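Moderator note: this is an archived Q&A kept for reference. The question asked for a predicted structure of one protein chain; the sequence and the answer are reproduced below.
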Amino acid sequence: MTERTELRIALFDAYHTGSHKRWALEAQRVWEACGYAVTLVTLPGRHWKWRMHGAAVWFAEWASARGSDPLPDALVVTDMVDAAALRGLLPPRWRSVPLAVYFHENQITFPWSSTDPDAASGRDRTYGWMNLQSALAADRVWFNSHYHREVFLAALPDFVRPFPDAVPRASLSHLHERCSILHPPVSLGERGAPRTPHPPGAPLLLLWNHRWEYDKAPERFFAVVAELERRQVDFKLVVLGDQFGDVPTVFEEARNRWADRILAWGTASPEAYSTWLLHADAVVHAPLQEYFGYSVVEAMQAGCVPVLGTGGPYDTYAAGFPRWTTAEEAADALLVEQAAGFPGRQAAREAVRRFDPEQLRGVYAAAVLDLVHPPTET
C-alpha cells in the first residue's frame, strides 16, 4: 500500500462575503495549486454576531454528517468561528485534527461603531473573548499582516484586565509562539495592464475604492478633497466600493458638493473597477482600522501612488511612499507627486508584487505542513 502524499484541508468560512470570501477562495486556489485537496464550507456573510455565536454548531453538524468519510489532515477556520466551541462540538474523531485560525480581522482591536448598542452595554467584550478563545484553542494562529499580529497580542493584557479572576495568564504569555503571518493572495488580473501616461496639465484624479463604512474613515478622505478645493487645485474623483446598511452621510454630502468633479460613483463591475484604477493617479486613505488593505494593494497593483495615513499595516508594503496625519500634509504630498509626474507608479506596482498568488504558494504550503507536521520539540 503506497503512502498518501496529498493533504486534505477543510476550510470553514463563517462570513463568506467581501474580503473574507476573497481570502477563502484565493487560499483554496493557492493550496490546490500546491497539490492539496481543499473542501471549502461556508455560511453567508451576514449577521456577524450570530455567526460568532452559532457558526461552530453549524460546522460541527456538517462534520457529523460526513459519517465515516476520510478525515481532513488540517482544519482551517476564519475569525468569525468560535474555534474553542467548534473543537468541543466536533465529532470525537475530528477533535484531533490540527486546527488553524485565520485572523482577517479581530474584535478586540476593531473600532466599534458609535451606533452599536452592544458597545455602550459592555457586551462588546463578548466577541473579543471569542476571538481570544479561538486563538488559545488553535494549534496555529495565522494573521493577514505583521501589524495585525502585533496589535492583537499587544492588546491582550488590557483586554483581560477588567475580568475579575481566573484569567489564563500563562496561556496568554505563550500564545505568540503559535502566531505567524500569512498574507492574503491578491490576484493581479486586469490591473496589470499598461497605463496611459498622465497628460501634462490634466486634473488630479483621486481614488476611493474602499467599503463605505465608518471604520474606513471616509470623512478623512473628503477632508483632503476639501483642502485641494481650498487651494484651487483642478481634480476629479472616482469613488467606488461596496455599501452595507447605513452609509455614512459624508458620501451624500460629497456627491452633492462635488457633483461636477465625479467621474464614477458606487459599486462597479470588475472590468470597470480595473479600468478606473488604471486611470486614477493616487489612492488617498487613512482608515480607523486596516489589518491588511486589499483595496490599497489593488490600487497599487494598477499603478496608483499610495498616499496613506500613518500607522496600520502599510509599512509592510508602502513604507517608501507619502504618509500623512492631516489633510494639509496629504494635499502637499499629492501636489509634490503631481509636479514630478507621479514617479512612484512603477514602484507601487513592484512593492505589492509579493502578494501575487504564485509568490505566496510556498508560504501557504509551508504553513499547512507546519500545522500538520509541527517541529519536534527538543
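Archived answer notes: The first strand starts at residue 8 and ends at 16.
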